[in-house]
Amino acid sequence: MSEKKQGFDMDFVAATTVEGIKDAGKLSMFKKSEKKEKKEDEIKRVKTCCRACIANCGVIATVKNGRVIKLEGDPADRMSKGRMCAKGLSGIQALYHPNRNKYPMMRVGKRGENKWRRISWEKAIDIIAHKLVETKQKYGAETVFCSTGGGGNPEIWSIARFCNIFGTPNWFEPGCAQCYLPRVVAYTMMYGGVDPSIADSNALEIYDTFDTPIKTLVLWGTDPSYSCPASGGGAVADLRANGVKTVVIDPRLTPDAAKADVWLPLRPGTDVALQLAWIRYIIENKLYDEDFVMKWTNLPYLVDVETKMNWRASVSNDENIPDTFYVWDEKTNSPKEMEYPWDDSLSPALMGTFEHEGKTYKTGMQLLWESVEKYTLEVAGEICELDPERIEKGIRLYAENTPSGLAIGVSTDQTPNSTQAAMAAATLDILVGNVERPGALLQRFRTSGVFDMPNYPVPIAASKLPDEQLKKRLGGIEHKGLHIWFAGHITSVFDAVLTGKPYKPRVWIDRSGNKMAAVADSQKVRRVIDELDFIVHMYMYPTSFSAYADILLPTEEWLETDMIVETCNTLCARQQVVHLWETMDETLIWSKICKRCGELGDEDCAKAFDADYMGNDLPYWDKVTDLWDHFLSRVGLSFDDLKKNTPYTYMSKEEWKDYYVYKHIDEKTGKERGFNTPSKKCEVYLESMITLGRTGKPFAKCELPPASKDYEPLPYYLEPAESPRDAEFAKEYPLVMTNGRVPYFHHNTLRNVPWLREIYPVPEIWMYPTDAEKYGLEDGAWAWVESKRGRIRAVVSVTEGIKPGAVYMERFWNPETLNTETHGWKEMNVNVLTKADAPFNDVVGTYTLRAFLVKVYPAEGAPEGILTNPQDFARWLAMPTDPTAEVKF
Ligand code: SF4
User: Fold this and answer.
1) Is the CB of 91 under 6 A from ligand 1?
2) Which atom of ligand 1 is nearest to the CA of 87?
């Protein structure tokens, strides 16, 4: 059967020889299977971990005669407990997809023609390395940029590592400023521990579902039932079954919203206004945990209103000992130094404005109150389009039915309010005292110690990036929060490509699900592509972005990958169940590129193989299992041991669940350990945010020039850049667009999987019945959805599950039109509509992926060439194939 008939979506220039391989026929991986004597079926069951999203659910794969024939959940997995979702169960279709990227490929013909010739790995790596070294020598390492994201990525830090070693400060994820990083910045700075994102497998308290005292769970802009159904979604369902109350803040009626005790369907983009009202109500009604707030937050500390910095009594040069701060002692009506952690002889004021020696000081709590004072229930109700009584009901449940916890999701990360929302969410849990007590989501449970930094398996080698290169990070001066992930700012990188200012990036190496669909304003991405000298794309199958690349590299599906996963008090092996074609582990691809650059004379890359030079950053590896063996040796295991014993319990559950870590006595000081913040208190008044904006500390490894304005130490609300309250704008674009997951896809992945496209063939646009009627649209009709930046099509779903005046749409792209002029990204991709330009979030540079304005009107029909009928997807049914040996060179 020809490749076309089987639904191949790239043109292969027929090649019986493979460039770069002298005698391809001798390599066993290219041989057709020889006929063998019929033997008894060989069946084995292999334990591994899913990576169809980032929840890492335990999986048992049944392999018959070398082919994976069945996937099922592993009941021993601490989080998923034997559950799997549709995405994970489709792993076989993804693995054996007829359109896998099977071999390295080189573009022939013009960029965008999607014509390819197979080449060897040696040749592909050689071409890439030559281009990298040449570009670095001619224009500087910073003119190479790398990126990842879009789902299915086993190890994103490989990219950051390579960039640090090669010497470019410019890598990014579609995430970064838009997904998760704002929360990481806020919780790291305010609490000094892990944020409570359920989709990111944090909030570990919820997985002991029948043994946790949590009474109320707030799901703020997160929908575990959709985003991670088998792990977090299952845990939340179990909690509800166990009587836990839930409050859901979401403009759409997700399954979690439908089962909530209080559902607050706010206007998209107004979350921070609502959060400020929650904070105000909790302060006004004294629903906060007074003892915790007084003793374990910095809210009683005095702030100099002129400098906005805390008033220090002493500065410590010992990292184990915090500075000391002044409080206003009500007994003596004077400022007094508060010895860490607490001085019983003092009676600090929590609120108040005080004058001393001609200066004005306020407590942190006073400043917090002033920042929220105007957000009454009525004001928030008006901004967010919610009933004030219903808001109050949600707050009371959260603040009175305790212990409770607030899990905030990605939705608030996707507007310029991003860090403010995360800061406000952290403030709420801190005020209510939901910190490290049983039932709280904010916990610092123990870890295995296998990795230097939990969840950063590949050493990032940040110390190897020279300071002068770090200072060239695009967007890195204005948005210094990005330095926490050593990342650049997407819009700043793209603007530099288009304008040549401050310099012109020229080479792009991307590993992602589809950049055309994963970052804002796809048409701008298309313009960027035209300006570049060289593009490499590595992924499991071709995407729209691949069509514009010069080299394609085939990466491994999760069923082909080896990796260590830490799940609660266990270590699990994501182990290679089979290996197909010439796919390669991604960490290894970067190692190969680096090695070849070194051979071509790049000294930075050559040194990356020197164990003495690399130190704790580790020299690059030839086999990824060498890396895992290295880390596992810290607990006396090898990767082979872990494969046989997965999940491996490294510590009893009781020992692992370490509550009240801040109260543990620090042996070095003899005092309570406190939190991992400069003051060792929860820093609700985030003075460090000002320091970050002025210097880059604590995230940048060298001092940076100040941003154009100070970052705010307390959360504040910004009305969305495109607002329905802007009457002129709203006249043409009257509806507010929001996005969010459906449970069939992770980011940009899996649109080519028959089972999943059968369930969800095309993206729906949800419209409230009166809106649909007003704009002449019926349920099931095709509609145009248009923003100021472009238009796409979707199928109308008329539903009361979205608030009036708002519409919801899942992002989408169409693998079936890859080989057409649209390359699958122009038809139904919501990022044609989104906004990549200012305003940005000050701290991390977030642009507008949600809460922008659109109009919706009838379309004449479906886009040309798209698939909608179940039988159409038969072209993508799995083509089971025999395993191959790993690529060696
Ligand atoms: S939630 Fe689904 S896709 Fe995600 S890891 Fe678990 S089974 Fe895989």
Assistant:
1) no
2) 3
Ligand 1 contact via 87 beta carbon (within 6 Å): yes
pLDDT at residue 33 is higher than 60: no
Task: Select from 538, 482, 485 the least CA-distant residue to 508.
Answer: 538
- 747 within ligand 1 shell (Cβ under 6 A): no
Question: Which residues, in sequence order, are CB contacts of 819 under 8 Å at separation 6+?
Answer: 9, 10, 11, 114
Three-state DSSP class for residue 67: strand
Q: For 441, list phi and psi in degrees, rounded to 5.
A: -85, -25
Give the separation between CA 267 and CA 273, rounded to whole angstroms. Answer: 10
Helix (H, G, I), strand (E, B) or coil at 455: coil
What is the structure's pLDDT at 9?
57
CB burial string 166-177: b at 16+ within 10 A, e below: bbbbbbbbbbbb
Mean pLDDT (whole number) for 578-604: 97
- Angle of helix 271-284 relative to helix 418-432, nearest 10 degrees, comes to 20
User: In angstroms, what is the span from residue 84 Cα to ligand 1's centroid?
Assistant: 6
Give the nearest ligand 1 atom to 56 CA. 5
646 secondary structure, DSSP code: P
- Torsion angle, alpha carbons of 720, 724, 727, 729, to 10: 70
List of residues 6+ apart from 772 with CB closer than 8 A: 778, 779, 796, 798
Mean pLDDT of 75-85: 97
Rounded mean pLDDT, 845-864: 97
The answer, yes or no, to whether residue 306 has pLDDT greater than 50, is: yes
Say how many residues make up the chain.
889
CB-CB neighbours of 453 under 10 Å? 10
Q: What are the phi and psi torsion angles at 871 (to 5°)?
A: -65, -20
Query: 228 in ligand 1 pocket by Cβ < 6 Å?
Result: yes
> Pairing state of beta strands 324-329 and 43-49?
unpaired
pTM value is 0.95
Instruction: Report the distance separating Cα 800 and Cα 821, nearest Å.
Output: 37
Number of neighbours of residue 818 by Cβ within 10 angstroms: 24
Token couple for 521: 């304003």
Torsion of CA 217, 223, 229, 233, to 10 degrees: 0
235 lines ligand 1 (CB under 6 A): no
Residue 229 has a pLDDT of: 95
Compute the distance between CA of residue 568 and CA of residue 474 in angstroms, rounded to an integer: 37
Each residue's pLDDT tens digit, 205-217: 999 988 999 999 9
Ligand 1 pocket residue status of 212, Cβ below 6 Å: no
The yes-or-no verdict on residue 202 having pLDDT over 60 is yes
741 Cβ below 6 A of ligand 1: no
Q: For ligand 1, what atom is nearest to the CA of residue 84?
A: 7
In short, whether 751's Cβ falls inside 6 Å of ligand 1 is no
Question: Is the C-beta atom of 229 inside 6 A of ligand 1?
Answer: yes
- pLDDT for res 11: 56
CA of 746 relative to ligand 1 center, distance in Å: 9
Whether 573 is in the pocket of ligand 1, judged by its Cβ within 6 Å, is no
pLDDT of 686 higher than 80: yes
Distance (angstroms) between ligand 1 centre and the Cα of 743 equals 10
Q: Which atom of ligand 1 is nearest to 228's Cα? A: 1
pLDDT band at 456 (very low <50, low <70, confident <90, very high): confident
Residue of 78, 225, 231, 753 to mutate, ligand 1, most atoms within 8 A of C-beta: 231
Q: Is 53 in the pocket of ligand 1 (CB under 6 A)?
A: yes
Q: What is the tally of helices (H) and strands (E) in the chain? A: 28, 30
Mutate to test the pocket of ligand 1, among 84, 95, 223, 742 (most ligand atoms within 8 A of CB): 84
Strand-pair partners of 855: 786
Q: What is the pLDDT of residue 16?
A: 35
> Exposed (0-12), middle (13-18) or buried (19+): which is 583, by Cβ within 10 Å?
buried
Q: Which two tokens stand for residue 638?
A: 């090898």
